[in-house]
Design goal:
Blueprint (H helix, E strand, L loop, with lengths): L1 E5 L3 H10 L4 E3 L2 H6 L5 H14 L3 E5 L5 H14 L3 E6 L2 H12 L4 E6 L2 H9 L4 E4 L1 H6 L4 H15 L4 E4 L5 H10 L3 E4 L1 H6 L4 H17 L1
Parallel strand pairs: 1-2, 1-8, 2-3, 3-4, 4-5, 5-6, 6-7, 7-8
Helix pairs in contact: 4-5, 6-8, 8-9
The structure holds SN-glycerol-3-phosphate.
Length: 217
């Protein structure tokens, strides 16, 4: 399973990269705004800084919602750096644009996926990734993990190459559950990734090893 970090915070991206487990980064307009990155030039510079830190795919989201606008913006984003993946919303114009990008060999991430039907359509259009938002489904009392499982079944039935990028991850157990179901990628806050490190028996065991070593020396 690939690990992406879901943030535009450069310190957190660097920290995840230094762990040696990072495969890519996802951003969205809200995450950029949270870091105070506004204005087209600053946003573009920020994507380039992220690409300098990591080796893998970096999702950059379009703001346009019409076909011509999405295509223009997406091509500009893709031309910035070979690691850029064009993030396109799951709307009718977006699906058309994903088909266009796919035919041109450009990578896409179809975002704001909340149903298996949307994921099926994105795969048909040739999306590289689909981003089902599991946390936001959980927020409205609908099990987000069921959606990951349904998409996995559908994609396996037809050997779709589109990768399931589980997004809107809220905690460490979401990552483990996505791995059990067979999501191809998770994109997560750093805190949930670091939660995978923790077990009290590890801490107790290490403390004992170190104190026993001290006694013997
Ligand atoms: O980047 C898309 C997605 O991961 C957003 O997550 O926490 O805003 O629902 P969240």
């Amino acid at each position: 399973m690939k690990f992406f970090i879901d943030t535009a915070n450069l310190d957190q991206i660097e920290e995840a990269q230094s762990l040696g487990i990072l495969d890519g980064v996802t951003t969205n307009p809200s995450l950029m705004a949270k870091e105070g990155i506004t204005g087209q030039k600053n946003i573009i510079d920020h994507y380039l800084k992220i690409c300098d830190i990591v080796d893998g795919d970096v999702s950059a989201e379009v703001i346009s919602v019409d076909y011509d606008g999405i295509v223009k913006e997406g091509e500009e984003l893709a031309s910035l750096h070979k690691q850029i993946v064009i993030k396109v919303p799951m709307i009718e114009e977006g699906v058309k644009a994903i088909r266009y990008f796919s035919d041109k060999g450009l990578k896409t991430n179809c975002t704001l996926i909340f149903s298996s039907g949307q994921a099926l359509l994105a795969a048909k259009a040739g999306a590289t990734y689909v981003s089902p938002f599991i946390g936001r489904l959980d927020d409205i009392s609908t099990d987000g993990l069921d959606l990951i499982s349904d998409i996995r079944d559908i994609y396996d039935n037809y050997a779709y190459e589109t990768e399931i990028l589980a997004a809107s991850i809220r905690h460490t157990m979401h990552i483990i559950d996505c791995a059990k179901i067979g999501a191809d990628v998770i994109t997560s806050p750093l805190s949930a990734i670091k939660g995978l490190l923790k077990h009290p028996l590890t801490d107790i065991g290490l403390e004992k090893f170190l104190s026993d070593h001290k006694k013997g020396s």
